[in-house]
């Protein structure tokens, strides 16, 4: 990495996550002196730019782009003079955007791993395959700089650096205690969210993946600032990178809370075939039921105004204490208020808790706190500067010692 890289950023995508990230970048002109925003629908970029202008007076240049068109992306990157592309579109666009960054010779960052459109299979191997090309080009690709993946991975590595010599057991607990007042809505892109939730659960145990049916393993947990909620065992993409970069892990699991109303609606939609990604012939055209469903559900970026309550996302880790005092368990977490997130950026806390870490990851790259050549998961980088920025930029965290390992 040369110090002469441009600190200009180009953000791709104009949904809730992008909106938060662009606002937070704009609030930090010393780190992000120039911000460009491009997406499939330019009017959405313009709406974000107008909100930024109103809130802090800064101008954001906006463009229309289909990020799957590599030559057009390369032209846009060159036109903006960006040194880093922040991909906040959908996982389907990860590979073409990585290709465009290589060709235009700029760094890359995202918050979700690549997923082919025709198969609900989110895995890192497609992006890890870019390692040599990024390394040879002297470029950095930073993968998974959202909350989960992202902050949950950084939390784990911070515990490993400051509290635990080894981590034996890891549980990631993701609770959205917010109420948006809708019968059924997802807090981030509905298509991606439903593909994730309806996939079989998978966790890491004794060196292998253990698969169980979706939503079949439920535990009640009392979340601070939310109360008691049912959380369900799920597969989530950071488990793959954590199992790789924390090789001593005996068990790693991911849990997410869902209300009974959400589960009831999802079960009905699944039973009638509306969550399928197999094409269905309708009036002479092939349509994907899940894509049609996503089109009729509320857009995540419209939920901000009505959502009340908190998110509480954290990591419980058990392992051998660094100070030699035996086995210890720590719980590290962030609590985020939907109302406060909305007041600051016009978006609810699920977008906020993803958009802020995307901004922080971008800051790590443009400031040079994190430097490297190749493809990096966030677990591979020093957690300390990232953790400091979480505290300073709206996602403060706490860590506490627990009496013993989790009982579930
Ligand atoms: P949205 O659906 O609200 O926004 C996605 C944006 O990408 C839309 O503006 C969409 O355009 C744009 N887009 C889609 N296809 C293209 C394309 N071919 N070219 C250019 N732009 C395109 O999603 P969210 O903001 O909720 O989520 C954004 C990303 O963040 C997703 O990848 C999601 O998986 C990830 N995420 C990560 C989390 C984490 O903690 N790591 C948590 C939550 C989300 P249009 O407006 O025209 O539809």
Automatic annotation (TrEMBL):
The keyword Calcium does not apply. Pfam families: Sacchrp_dh_C, Sacchrp_dh_NADP. Residues 146-395 form the Saccharopine dehydrogenase-like C-terminal domain. Keywords: Oxidoreductase. One of its GO terms (molecular function) is saccharopine dehydrogenase (NAD+, L-lysine-forming) activity. It is an enzyme of class 1 (oxidoreductase). The keyword Membrane does not apply. Residues 9-142 form the Saccharopine dehydrogenase NADP binding domain. InterPro entries: NAD(P)-bd_dom_sf, Sacchrp_dh-like_C, Sacchrp_dh_NADP-bd. Its EC number is 1.5.1.7. This is Saccharopine dehydrogenase (NAD+, L-lysine-forming). It comes from Erythrobacter ramosus.
